[in-house]
């Protein structure tokens, strides 16, 4: 999911950089307006966990491997705006310190994981919360949306690669979605596990973010 340098043409990576920077700026403004004392340490812990989890790969079909994305988890723990800030910091550190993902593709990578994979997840969870009620409905919704968060990020990456002329859309879309569908199952399981743990130990940390989702 970390697109390297040279895979996106100038028009694509510049456009994604501008769009992502604007969304991050708006998210910083919204986070500063709403952040509380509980959120500050939770942001740090979330960033550290997602960073570490992304560094661990697990095997999937065909000898390939995948890793945790974390966009949906960040949005659930922190809300869509603070969640995007956390995802942005994770990808920036990975890019500059570990050369994981290209500098020119940084805007695209953050958009894929933090916007398509995170902010969109929060919107979908609120919609699901109106249909799937109660505790069971919440976890069913979380599983589905966490799974879809990986697929939506994969679709966005496929579109960016296709628009850049790197790969034909039909081939890259099938390759990316088929592999990331398997990764999405692991993403959903991990997300549910972490959310369940936090709710059982410190539900007060995320109760505000779950309003309108858990009904």
With helices defined by DSSP (H or I, 4 residues minimum), what is the helix count? 7
The counted number of beta strands is: 2
What is the N-to-C succession of helices and strands? HHEEHHHHH
Predict the CATH topology: Arp2/3 complex 21 kDa subunit ARPC3
Helix content: over 70%
Q: What average pLDDT do the residues reach?
A: 89
Please compute the radius of gyration using only Cα atoms: 17 Å
Order of adjacent strands in the largest pleated sheet: 1-2
Whole-number count of domains: 1
Kindly estimate the percentage of residues that lie in beta strands according to DSSP. Answer: under 5%
> What's the architecture, going by CATH?
Orthogonal Bundle
The poorly predicted ranges are none
Shape: globular
Please describe what this structure looks like.
It is built from 7 helices and 2 strands. The chain has a two-stranded antiparallel ribbon with strand order 1-2. The protein has 215 residues and is mostly helical. The model has no long low-confidence stretch (mean pLDDT 89). Helix 1 crosses helix 4 (80-98), helix 3 crosses helix 4 (80-98) and helix 6 (134-163) runs antiparallel to helix 7 (169-201).
